[in-house]
Amino acid sequence: MKKKLLFILITALIILGPIFGQGLNETTVVEEEATFSFTDSLGRVREINTNLERIAPSGNVAQVQLYTIANDLMVGNSGAYSESAKRYLDQTNINLPTLGAFYGKKANLNKEALIVADPQVVIDFGEIKGSKDAMAQDLDTLEKQINIPVVFIETYLQGTAESYRLLGTLLNRQEDAEKLAQYSEKAINKAIESAKLIKTPVRVYYSSATDALDGVPKGNFHSEVIDLIGVENVVPATSGSGANLNSLEQIFVYNPEVILLSSEEAYNLVTSDKTWGELEAVKNGKVIKLPIAPYPWIDSPPSVNRIIGIYYLGSLLYPELYSDIDLTSLVKEFYSLFYKYNLTDTEVNELLGL
Question: For the chain, which terminus, N or C, has the lower number of CB atoms within 10 Å?
Fold first, then answer.
């Protein structure tokens, strides 16, 4: 009996031994994700996943541009959307968590929320903040804190097309990026060529403040549309990137022909206040309330939302130079291409204040 039992055990070991041995020796193979080397606008090289599925903006400028090409990949927003914006944007994006902004006067990046959102890369857009070296150090520090690659794409108005092409490479969406780049280039080139024909520039004052006293100076990151189309910005250039706080008396000295305002509160103030009413621009009905949905067409944030503002402001201030364009069609095309929203004629008229 003992011999028979021993025979059974030996037979079982012979049969099952290789199986158990294989299980003991087997090593779990984890397939590494494919990556590529991406060089950002600061010259920093980062290894980025070839097929990104989760991205996050570092601020409002990034939020706008990322939405236009890859809203389906976004895992969070830098700031909450305004009520006027929600009509034109995807509900899924509206409901994403708010992560805050890394730069700006109201910098409030929530690093914990960003880590929880788990993007594969964080993308910053806009002007270089300080020097290249200082900004690179900022982003390197943030990377160490969140353990996520952070890249920067420099984006000035006239470099919009280039920024889209670089972004297309990063996201592996070159075809979509090229469509957005070409629309942007066409608008910018139209403004450049038209500006060459201007003999007497229109004198303009622009403010996005609710009291209309923060005038955006010429040569500023926030005044790029105004400068590009060839008007004379009456607020002198400064070394900073923000607005200039002016007194109403100073605005009388500037004596603009046209006043451009983004805030409805400011527009109501300027067009109803007796003192403001003494300005020639107000007397002549040249106070313009700029379109702001889903984002202001001229500024705030100074991102790709400004591209349609080129056509709009050019047509408004230099109609003879823009008589060859169909503004309604261009607005529809812009909203469809950039925001994935198909405007009706009624909605276009609402945006244009017609």
Answer: N
Average per-residue pLDDT in the chain?
91
What pLDDT is attached to residue 33?
79
Catalogue all structural domains in the chain, each as residue range(s) with its CATH number. 35-177 (3.40.50.1980), 197-352 (3.40.50.1980)
| Strand segments (E) across 28-98 | 35-39, 45-49, 55-57
Question: Of 278, 290, 291, 220, nearest to 251 (Cα)?
Answer: 278
Contacts of 26 (CB under 8 A, 6+ apart): none
Residues 176 and 60: their CA atoms lie apart, in Å, by 21
3-state DSSP helix/strand/coil % of the chain, to nearest 5: 50, 15, 40
Secondary structure (DSSP) of 230-248? T-EESSPP-SSSS-EE--H
| pLDDT tens sequence across 175-199 | 999 999 999 999 999 999 999 999 9
- For the chain, report the end-to-end CA distance as a whole number of angstroms: 103
How far is Cα 246 from Cα 341, in angstroms, rounded to an integer?
38
What are the tokens at 209? 């403040």
Range 211-226 average pLDDT: 94
Short-list 284, 324, 322, 325, CA closest to 198: 322
Answer whether residue 242 shows pLDDT above 60. Answer: no
Would you call the peptide bond into 301 cis, given omega within 30 degrees of 0 as the criterion?
yes
DSSP string, 114-141: HHHH--SEEEEEES--S-HHHHHHHHHH
For the segment 303-329, the average pLDDT, to the nearest whole number, is 98
Query: 345 burial class (0-12, 13-18, 19+ CB within 10 angstroms)?
Result: exposed
Q: Whole-prediction pTM value?
A: 0.88
**Helix (H), strand (E) at residue 327:** helix 327-339
DSSP 20-47: HHHHHH--PPPPPPPEEEEE-TTS-EEE
